Amino acid sequence: MNPDEQGPPDDLLRAVEALLFAAETPLSAEEISAHLEGADVKPALAQLQAHYAPRGVHLVERGRRWQFQTAPDMAHLLRREKDQLRRLSRAATEVLAIIAYHEPVSRAEIEAIRGVQTSAGTLDVLMEAGWVRVAGRRDVPGRPVIYATTPDFLNHFGLASRRDLPGIDELKAAGLLDPVDDAFDEAMEQRADISPEPTDSLENPEESA
């Protein structure tokens, strides 16, 4: 970071770096800016990301939120055998994939894609893992709860956004999914193009409670 080069002031770089190191949770650019009297922090984030790219710690963006994490090739040094994630059941794996590719989606919509009923316990497992959240209610008769993935889901699978989701064949090849039946494969292959979540059909669950 040569101070003679054009770019964000060194004081701003250091302030952004300090905030991210101290933060208990990932921060959005807007949240970082709010701590720094509204400063434009995007150039500083980009420069810090480039600075840390060859180091043992990387600055990464996951779901429009920024955080430091161990470089992928160094992760094995910190891995603990006791912290191995319990392998998801076939049902939970299918539900997680459907939510990721179709969110926001209701339980009835999940069941329509899977062709079988989905127990509340399956959704509970995914929410306890921190990968799925309640995203509001569908603005239709009955006002069903709708579900979406979380920043933790993106972080666990190393995705910057949902647009980076791999195809079902890539997931299988990477060993992230157990083999699923042809009907589920077909449902995933025929998924609609991912687009930003519509805001007119969502309602804050706290406001509607």
UniProtKB/TrEMBL annotation:
Keywords: Cell cycle, Cell division, Chromosome partition, Cytoplasm. SUPFAM superfamilies: Winged helix' DNA-binding domain. It comes from the Bacteria. Residues 187-209 are annotated as: Disordered. The keyword Cytoplasm applies. The keyword Cytoplasm applies. This is SMC-Scp complex subunit ScpB. The lineage of its organism: Bacteria, Pseudomonadati, Pseudomonadota, Alphaproteobacteria, Sphingomonadales.
